[in-house]
Amino acid sequence: MIALVLCHFALAACSAPLVRLLGRYAFVVLALPPAATTVWAFTEWGGTEAGRAVTWSWEWIGTYDVSVALRMDALGELMVLLAAGVGTLVLLYCASYFTDASPRLASFAGNLLAFAGAMLALVLADDLISLYVFWELTTVFSYLLIGHTSERKQNRRSALQALTVTTLGGLAMLIGFLILGEAAGTYRISAIVADPPEPTRAVSVAVVLVLCGALSKSAIWPFSLWLPNAMAAPTPVSAYLHAAAMVKAGVYLVARLAPAFADVPVWRPVVLVLGGVTMLLGGWRALRLNDLKLVLAYGTVSQLGFLTVLAGAGNRNAALAAVALILGHALFKAALFLVTGIVDHTAGTRDLRRLSGLARSRPYVCAVAVLAAASMAAVPPLLGFAAKEAAFDALLHGDVTDRWVLAATVVGSVLTVAYTLRFVWGAFARKPGVADTPTRRVGAALLAPPAVLAVAGLVLGPGVGWTDRLFAAYADAFPAPAHPYHLALWHGFGTVLLLSALTWAGGAVLFAHRATVVRISRRIAWPTADSVFGHLLLGLERVALQVTGFVQRGSLSGYLAITMMVMLSGQLAVLVTDRPWEGAVAPRLWDVPLQGAVAVLTCAAALSCLTVSRRMKAVVLAGLTGYGTALLFVVQGAPDLALTQFCVETVSMIVFVLVLRRMPVRFEESIGTWRRAMRVPVALAASATVGVAVWAAGAARVAEPAGAAMVEEVAHHGLKDVVATILVDLRAWDTMGESAVLAAAAIGVTSLIYLHRRGDAPMNREELRGETAWSLSGRRLTGLPQGADTAPERSWLAAGATLAPEHRSVVFEVVARLLFHPILVLSLYLLFCAENMPGGGFVAGLVAGLALITRYLAGGRFELAEAAPLQPGLFTGLGLFVSTGVALGGLAEGTVLHAWTYHGHLPPFGDFHVSTSVLFDFGVYLLVLGVVLDIVRALGAKVDRQIERAAGALAPGMDTGKGEPQR
To answer: What is the per-residue pLDDT for 755?
Structure first.
């Protein structure tokens, strides 16, 4: 199973070269994975109809009992055949529907096949979390497919609307899944259905949330607005996603969970009421539309309401009718959508008011359409008739509620017959006063897929008994009724057949009076859901603008005050409610008096920040608070933390200094007395609250500290540095995530500097015709000789010639050059000694970055380019690649990030060992080095170049005005 799913995604990734090589015939190759899946599903038919299931699982998050589990039972068999079988025919249809010149054909083909793979995985998923992942994948791919023609505003809007509605429903469903999983003690769907949790209030809430996701996916009212608008997508997308695949996902989920939760009190009211309302509203709306595709779209909405009612009714016979109708609906509705594409392709329009005489000019197309439409209208001897008979019988012999639902479904079926006749008449009949529509030839390859689907509906009508055992294997999960229903084409004369005849007659009457029906329908029409959605979005945007204008006033101090007040309110509410200080151990002022002295000095530096008006002084004082914190770590006996804090604080101060070059010397914001009187209490209260919260958290410990166990575990592996081992082994997942966040933050910050292009320009000295930013930024000294006579005899820097002699510091140049390589060696020492000494990849990367910063401060941007000729992105990307590679390498031992150590012997050096933790730390080292280098280039070298360009110090031929030299 998993191989078939992966084949879909693998071949989808190859769609671009396949389309370049084969053109539109690449769809034939892309149809191979779903075709193979269809064949495989048929080979498993005998086992699934006997009640056996095909399973596969792989543990994903073992701690939380989450796994990628696939399972195909009777219901899964049906859905796999629909997703794969119809998908195969649609892909073959695309080979004739599109041309080699169709725009973005490769991306469309890849997205369509990837959607088929995601849909296949969705219906096979036997784990709630896995199902949610594939559920959202279908949402993403449907967004891409609906918005394929992105130059059209309607396509973009429809794609965004479908994404918004289904994603919101999916998020609600995820919360419901989490509640269900915790209530049941497992996330395995088959286990939950076999042994459902007690229907508590939490379970009821979870059921409602799950139904929100299912109903939004299947376009059930009030979520039905997105499906008609999605008809802006190409016709193959409508035939597959909106007839046989995506919209069936919600119905499938209802059918999958109904055996377990149909008895929950909230289940039946939600499913039956909303399903019945959707069937009636969708059918009524389809009677007044003139676009063939929209007629089918609202008919699909109506049929989905009918399917939802049957799947969620909660009894065995209704479930049997539901799966039969799921099959019948997929066959006739996909065929009709494909026929609509043929009509549009051959006649150039889908407007039924302009179409006339196609039954004579294209009789084979008309025959296929009539065959599929007859199944939709439940005319014998087609599959639609057998499924509709089963549905009426199940509801007729149900309880009082079921009979009310039966009345609604009969009315809905009358509407179905009416809009079916409207579709056939509008597409193929000759209309008075309308000339016959000229058409183009329709190839056999284009007509074959809908013909296969329509003929399948005809064959399975008399042969519906072939499916009875398979469908009953699913339906038997419900309590057995006194008289189990069996699928057959003919059950004799009776009430059910009378109801069917009533629907045909009522539909014919409505169609005969179609002009009156259209006039009445438009007169009593409510505002469309689409317009309501648009007004809601507009109102939301206006509210957002008002709130933004009120809150975002451009004052950083105001933002900080709001953040602190919100934090303060939340913390105080928790502290006052829980009173964690009751019975807690009283805090100590210090462990040793030196801690108190360092804390007093640190607080004094922090308070001094309030009195200064120069930005540079504030940065220095803020840096002193960081160094004071590092001293506290030293006194406490945490050298790893202290070393990291010292390096971070140093890099931060340098970055602040680089930024302050382009800012005024003094703070420009004037602070009045009353504003200061408000800010000081807020700041003091926030700090006091955080302090109390930290003390309460520490005093609330009831279990033994984990430190001793970690020390023992680290010592067991022959290591000494507990902190480094935690970062790269015991909590490596956290480190990996933090590394990715650090890289993303650095890219985001530096991208604000590179406004026009993200790529870095090569720093050619030939572009400089004047002085560098380092010379421009200082005052020219007078009374000193100028020129090369004052330059040192030996150049200690590679780019020393770019510096003005009167602004050079020989001592700094010598120190920078002499310490550069020792600092790099020190960084490598800190990297490789981290198992037994203070160090690690993070602090080692910072130290290496400080070496490059030293070269930059001594010689400017050209010196930095000489010291680090490679791009920062190379280091960042390579670091992420190494860390991720080490993490995935652990799969060889069964789990991600599984640690192992290799012991060996080298004659010159003796015994040695290499562990994955060191390799993982090396990736962190490269990533941090790349981040530091990127920031220095952006806030240092890039700003230098802007200063030089503003001063006219760059050669005109080398400057493009965009911050990049001409290539």
So the answer is: 55
